[in-house]
Amino acid sequence: MDPIRNPYAPGAGQRPPELAGRDEQLAAFDVVLERVQRGRPERSLVLTGLRGVGKTVLLNALRSAAVRKGWGTGKLEARPDQGLRRPLSGALHQAVRELGHPEAEQAEHVLGVVRSFVEREAGADAKLRDRWSPGIDAAVVRGRADSGDIEIDLVELLSDVGGLAADTGKGVAIFLDEMQDLGAADVSALCAACHELSQTGLPVIVVGAGLPHLPAVLSASKSYSERLFSYQRIDRLGREAADRALVAPAAEEGAAYDDEALAAMYAATGGYPYFIQAYGKSVWDLAPRSPITADDVAVAAPEAERELAVGFFGSRYDRATPGERDYLRAMADAAVQLGEDPVGAVATADVAAVLGKKPQSLSPARDALLKKGLIYSGERGRIAFTVPHFGRYLRTQA
């Protein structure tokens, strides 16, 4: 098969040629945009799921839907070592520009508030290079979004942005990836701001994406967050959608799969969108002709697994210390010994039993892995990998 015409796209956040299995989420978001634009009450949205299920891809698709409706949009990615002020100001700067408010003075005033919000992070005595926000030429608006209390400032900032959006008859949507990595103060402030906006009816929504334990992170910050957001679990694709993700792009290039090949691909990928793209690319490159057969899948599978071992699994495994790697392998072994779901949670006590140690002695390794985003805890006393098939990879490494 011609590798130049290979239609598959295994990349971080890269949109696949066929966004299969997400029609329901896209249709629901169109309803949210229309309701907010008409002043109807609607909740902000949170997408949760394991890595590799396409949360970032879906987040980008939802943003494109908002852009098509004339909304102002901005996107940022949370990082555990960075506060919210600077990346959010950049996202809002872009959103205000996209809105294209007809009154330049009003838009400039709001941009001045955005600049005031971000410069407050540096402090009054900071050097110019630390206070300056690139691209925002508007004069700082003193006394607005600059109190130093992130909760007060964020409410004021988003209220001003929402008022500007309301003037245009459109809305503003902020897309926030890796939302679970926000600091505790920033999570609390974001929840408070969304709560305030929902009460005032201003056309601003937040669309967040994060790991499965994100709802617990939000709930721990504000008890009302359970009612504040609409939560959508993004999971692996069913067989029909997984087949469509492979078949539709191939058909565009005049190629096809036989039924046995599609069954073999689903068995290998488990329906996880990133794996579908990775295996699809390898199978296409190595298959001699169309239609692609189960034998072609068997030949190409080792190449796909080598690529995943380096780029998807290996890059994460390399971040762990030797002690943390022992903990990860023990998680994989515990799941096998107990017959647990390979992508489900295992008890920390079972992991400790595999290692022959007391659970308390393993707390440092577990906590470090949680901070590194390699595992998560959806419920007390249980942990799971954030990456599907990671346990299988660890057992092959062993």
From TrEMBL:
PROSITE patterns: CYTC (PS51007). InterPro entries: AAA_16 (IPR041664), Cyt_c-like_dom (IPR009056), P-loop_NTPase (IPR027417). GO terms for molecular function: ATP binding. Residues 1-20 are annotated as: Disordered. Keywords: ATP-binding, Heme, Iron, Metal-binding, Nucleotide-binding. SUPFAM superfamilies: P-loop containing nucleoside triphosphate hydrolases (SSF52540). Residues 166-317 form the Cytochrome c domain. This is ATP-binding protein. It comes from Nocardioides panacisoli.
